[in-house]
Design brief:
This protein is an all-alpha fold. The chain has one domain. It is built from two helices and no strands. It comes from Microbacterium tenebrionis. Keywords: Membrane, Transmembrane, Transmembrane helix. This is Multidrug ABC transporter ATPase.
């Protein structure tokens, strides 16, 4: 077993934490809404029922939430690589 660290430790900022938790929450909410639509369809709801009430919002969350969460995760990875690169140059 190696006791060497993989690289210099860089402090994690507040923006990184906010971005990570927001992406996780958005992805989880999107998956929950996706399953709600599947369950609603399986119980016999017709197309007209999905166009009224809260269902348009429930249908829009996976449509916009999953791609947005993906972009946030990519941004988080880029920020992490930049932060570790700067920390490596300093040491």
């Amino acid at each position: 077993m190696s006791t060497q660290k993989s690289g210099p430790e860089a402090p994690v900022g507040r923006i990184d934490r906010i971005l990570a938790f927001t992406a996780l929450t958005l992805a989880a909410l999107s998956v929950i809404c996706f399953f709600a639509i599947i369950i609603g369809s399986a119980t016999g709801m017709d197309q007209a029922s999905f166009s009224e009430g809260v269902w348009p919002v429930v249908a829009a969350i996976p449509l916009w939430g999953l791609p947005l969460a993906f972009v946030m995760i990519i941004a988080l990875l880029v920020m992490s690589f930049v932060r570790k690169g700067r920390a490596a140059r300093r040491s």
